[in-house]
Amino acid sequence: MAVQIPYPLVGGAGRSALAVATVLLFFAASTAHALATRGPLWTAGFLAVTVGGGLAVETVGVHTGVPFGRYDYAGSLGPRLCGVAVVVPLAWAMMAYPTYVLVRRHRRAPVRAAVLGGLVLATWDLFLDPQMVTAGHWHWLGGGPALNGIPLTNFLGWLLVGTIMTATLLALPDPTRRAHRDERIPLALLAWTYLSSVLANLVFFGEPGVAVTGGVAMGAVLAVALRPWRADRRADDPGRWGWR
User: Fold this and answer.
1) Alpha helix (H) ranges present in the chain?
2) How far apart are CA 90 and CA 20, in angstroms?
3) Which of 49, 96, 164, 188 is the most exposed place for a label (fewest CB within 10 A)?
4) CB-based contact 96:121 (threshold 8 Å)
5) What is the distance between the alpha carbons of residues 119 and 31, in angstroms, rounded to a whole number?
6) pLDDT digits (tens, 9 = 90+) for 4-55
7) Are 103 and 120 in contact (CB under 8 A)?
8) Which residues make Cβ contacts (< 8 Å) with residue 236, sequence separation at least 6?
9) Rounded to an integer, what distance in angstroms lies between the CA atom of residue 72 and that of residue 117?
10) What is the Cα–Cα distance from 105 to 96, expressed in whole angstroms?
11) Which DSSP letter does residue 180 get?
């Protein structure tokens, strides 16, 4: 959070460095929390799904345009692997973890949980993509229907990949011996990401359209995901189901 606060106040190489540092620290926080609360086996699976899966889908996307649309990375985010900035798969992982923590409360309805996870990630990208394109970190090739300058195919691609990624994480055995967990760190990071994105676009970036679009869409998804569903609560598990 401290690294993100000065981001709107600097430019050029300094802003790019802060973007990379934010991803690295957020990724480290997500991975460390997973390791501390879910153990090394779950964390290894999480990294394989998110970092490995993120790299795979981004590689396919860069070279074929599927499933996001045609785009290309610049060199401003550091080294690239298979045409993909190495930091990008870490960004998939950093947000996939708090998203998983949030939607896991719906795990007794796995399809709903997976779709909610996909929607959290896809609506987050309504903030991310315009910001990164404006900063010159990647650019889109070709035309077609767009929202805030970003092809709508990108949103659909994020929804598809995010849903599959969340469903796979939900399928990983999550150790029951650590059932009572303190999940406030990943949930606070998720809330900070949402609120800071709205504020930055509205006040600092001069992008009210992005602030409203992302704010309404992601806010609605988060509200639904946070809402207790009676079908998710077992008769012998009152009250504390949402924090496990």
Assistant:
1) 12-47, 53-64, 87-103, 110-134, 152-171, 184-199, 208-226
2) 10
3) 188
4) yes
5) 22
6) 999 988 988 999 999 999 999 999 999 999 999 999 999 999 999 999 999 9
7) yes
8) none
9) 26
10) 15
11) S
